């Protein structure tokens, strides 16, 4: 089987051209392929499939082999993959588990339009919202020395989230006007990842809601830099774009 490896700010993925829909989906196979010691190694696996009325369908699996919710950096990488295959030009409309997405491609970045967000659950200590995947956002003072794995796991498997299927957990440090540093514990990977696209999207919208950061937020993650652009509406947010690099690493056969 031929596979491709792509990464976006260190979020890495095994990518399969499955337009003939012959990939033998199984949780064990996907987990084995994503294993960093015994497989290719990745945060997740994506299938590119045909979809009537769209340029392609994105099917995303977590590294533990379970089918996942929307992955923003994965979406950007799959758009780059479709562009590399010649399926699309400099723009596309595709379908994913959370609905329709638009994207634009340049040599430097892929800009992915995220779903509208109309509800932020605000508490004294954190914000919670769904940006295609569920995200908890907490502000901290010393992000560099934070035990993201231990704190993230406690939130992910704690109430009220564990009874709702768990959540991704983001820790945010404000470093300037419209600038954040973010680290994320991802469910399905069950560890800290180098980046999380839906996560930084949630952090940017939280920063607008709490701090007044407007129009865009520049975010540094472990694997690089991302930008979120958005429009505030009476009911929430629309025209949300996740912008950053998406790069082919290698291809091979397994």
Your description of this structure?
The chain is globular, with a radius of gyration of 17 Å. It has two domains: 2-113 and 246-253, Diaminopimelate Epimerase, Chain A, domain 1; 121-238, Diaminopimelate Epimerase, Chain A, domain 1, CATH 3.10.310.10. The chain has 254 residues and is α+β, with helices and mostly antiparallel strands. The strands form two sheets. Strands 5, 6, 7, 8, 9, 10, 11, 12, 13, 14, 15 and 16 form a twelve-stranded mixed β-sheet that branches. A five-stranded mixed β-sheet has the order 4-3-2-1-17, sandwiched between helices. It has helices spanning 27-34, 72-85, 148-156, 197-211; strands at residues 2-8, 11-17, 44-49, 57-62, 91-96, 99-105, 110-113, 121-122, 127-130, 134-139, 168-176, 179-186, 191-193, 216-221, 224-232, 237-244, 247-253. The relative contact order is 0.18. GO terms for molecular function: diaminopimelate epimerase activity. Keywords: Amino-acid biosynthesis, Cytoplasm, Isomerase, Lysine biosynthesis. Substrate binds at residues 11, 62, 72-73, 168, 186-187, 197-198. Belongs to the diaminopimelate epimerase family.
Topology overview:
Layout: E1 2-8, E2 11-17, H1 27-34, E3 44-49, E4 57-62, H2 72-85, E5 91-96, E6 99-105, E7 110-113, E8 121-122, E9 127-130, E10 134-139, H3 148-156, E11 168-176, E12 179-186, E13 191-193, H4 197-211, E14 216-221, E15 224-232, E16 237-244, E17 247-253
Parallel strand pairs: 2-3, 10-11, 12-14
Antiparallel strand pairs: 1-2, 1-17, 3-4, 5-6, 6-7, 7-16, 8-9, 9-10, 11-12, 12-13, 14-15, 15-16
């Amino acid at each position: 089987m031929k596979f491709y490896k792509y990464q976006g700010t260190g979020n890495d993925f095994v990518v399969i051209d499955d337009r003939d829909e012959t990939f033998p989906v199984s949780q064990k196979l996907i987990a084995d392929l994503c294993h960093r010691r015994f497989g290719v190694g990745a945060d997740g696996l994506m299938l590119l499939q045909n979809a009537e009325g769209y340029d392609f369908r994105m099917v995303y699996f977590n590294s533990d082999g379970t089918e996942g919710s929307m992955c923003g950096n994965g979406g950007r990488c799959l758009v780059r993959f479709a562009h590399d295959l010649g399926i699309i030009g400099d723009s596309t409309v595709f379908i994913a588990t959370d609905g329709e997405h638009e994207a634009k491609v340049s040599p430097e970045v892929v800009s992915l339009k995220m779903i509208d967000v109309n509800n932020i659950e605000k508490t004294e200590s954190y914000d919670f919202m769904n940006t295609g995947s569920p995200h908890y956002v907490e502000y901290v003072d010393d992000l560099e020395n934070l035990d993201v794995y231990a704190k993230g796991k406690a939130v992910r498997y704690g109430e009220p989230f564990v009874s709702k299927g768990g959540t991704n957990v983001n820790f945010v440090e404000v470093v300037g006007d419209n600038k954040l540093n973010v680290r994320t514990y991802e469910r399905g990977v069950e560890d800290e990842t180098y980046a999380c696209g839906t996560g930084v999207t949630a952090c940017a919208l939280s920063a607008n809601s709490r701090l007044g950061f407007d129009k865009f937020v520049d975010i540094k993650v472990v694997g690089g830099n991302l930008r979120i652009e958005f429009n505030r509406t009476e009911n929430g947010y629309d025209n949300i774009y996740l912008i950053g690099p998406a790069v082919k690493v290698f291809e091979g056969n397994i």
